[in-house]
Amino acid sequence: MGGTPSKVATGDTLSIALENQTSSSNVYAYITGTALDSNNALFLLQSDGHTPYYPLSPTSTGQPLAADCGIKLGVPGAKTVVQVPHLAGARIWFSINSPLTFLLNPGPGLVEPSVSNESDPNYNRLWGFCEFTFNSIELFVNISYVDFVSLPIRLNLLNTSGVSQSVMGIPANGLQTVSSALIAQGAKDGKGWEKLVVRAKDGSILRALSPNTGIVLNSELLKGYYDNYVNQVWNKYTGTGLRINTQAQWGTVEGRVTNGILGFGAIGGFGKPSARDVFSCSTGPFAVGGNAALGNIAARVSAGFNRRLVLSEINQVLELDADELQYAFG
Hints:
Layout: E1 2-5, E2 13-19, E3 27-35, E4 41-45, E5 52-53, E6 63-64, E7 71-72, E8 79-85, E9 87-96, E10 103-105, E11 109-111, E12 126-134, E13 139-143, E14 148-149, E15 154-158, E16 164-167, H1 174-189, E17 197-199, E18 205-209, H2 211-217, H3 227-239, E19 242-245, E20 252-258, E21 261-263, E22 269-270, H4 275-280, H5 292-306, E23 317-318, H6 322-326
Parallel strand pairs: 1-15, 19-23
Antiparallel strand pairs: 1-2, 2-8, 3-4, 3-7, 3-9, 4-5, 6-10, 9-12, 10-11, 12-13, 14-18, 15-16, 17-18, 19-20, 20-21, 21-22
């Protein structure tokens, strides 16, 4: 699949060329988001690729859409051009061999396809998405592999000056490569990595989940995986300081373990994290609420655990970009 935005924020609409680069003639695309110029209303693009659909709030949960929003991409190699208004938090969804099911809750709120809910009607379907925000200033796009890896989606941007940029995404065999590595790791250490590979009823691979998403489905998965390493970290920094470059106004801070807490003075501190806490970066001791400084430190500490850098970092200065944490699975 490929999405080729051909116009950036020089007008009120964005043209996107959706290209079917699969071997299937049964591929669907969907575009969802928040309409910035229409009071931030929930937006879906209808199947004709041009007509907006602003759902009304239903009276009960799980109601079907009142419009057909599945854009058929045609035969392999076909290109379908669609247009969207200014959108925030937008996604382009692709599904192979079957359409996706979107539902509405009161609000209205859109019930999107989920990889962490086995009762979701889309769970056993092959799909993926990329993300973008198109506002009056700029176009922001990205390929998101935070929660799972599935379809290879490529983005090409052509601006009004004729300059082109591309994000290639994973290769055609990327899902198989990731899945094979997870299966091999599970066979090597017996920790259940192979359970992150989700298969269809016919045995074909649908997606490979991030550990965080896998644990949502199975709370016992990878349980205790980091315990030994966490204990080593706690032992080391009981006797020496762990310095972290916050790359922000707090500068470099130092923490030490006292009474079981890795503390950073008046900023606050953390108890020992579980594997789930390390993978999610936002649960257990890393659920820090509105404490911005501690949240900054938590991002770097959890990323350090994820990459096993907390013990090996030179001079004990942890200089991890917080964004690394969100993409640790990749």
